[in-house]
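User: quick one - fold this with 2'-deoxyadenosine-5'-diphosphate bound?
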Amino acid sequence: EQVEETYIMIKPDGVQRGLVGEVISRFEKKGFKLTGLKLFHCPKDLAEEHYKDLKSKSFFPKLIDYITSGPVVCMSWEGIGVVASARKLIGATNPLQAEPGTIRGDLAVQTGRNVVHGSDSPENGKREIG
Ligand code: DAT
Ligand code: MG
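Assistant: Sure. Structure tokens for the protein plus 2'-deoxyadenosine-5'-diphosphate:
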């Protein structure tokens, strides 16, 4: 396991519902290091670039509308094995399938409103932080 960085984003529903502190707290308590943070209203073209791997999916237009619907909190987190570990802390994409104890398992119901994004590989971590 190596020191790496991942991109974590609190999505508009998470910001709107007042879950920013809760999400940050879980990564802090785990022991990861916050290396960057900003509140940001994502423009459409950047949202499409961020989710470019999903461009062919039927839900893509709704996903872009949702992610650009309000401010998000953009963060980079550093630590040993942080990319995979963050995905475990976040839980499964569908919150109804996410284990209790995970962010999505504890705090969300709908796939289209699943509170938080986490990079799925160290390469995508670098790309998404950029
Ligand atoms: P994850 O966010 O767990 O990495 P993903 O990369 O497959 O999941 O998809 C990105 C986001 O797109 C996901 O957080 C919510 C949305 N999404 C994925 N699958 C969906 C589906 N079947 N219906 C609606 N939205 C979906
Ligand atoms: Mg993903």
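One thing worth noting: Residues 54, 59, 63, 93, 111-112, 114, 117, 120 surround 2'-deoxyadenosine-5'-diphosphate (ligand 1) (CB under 6 Å).
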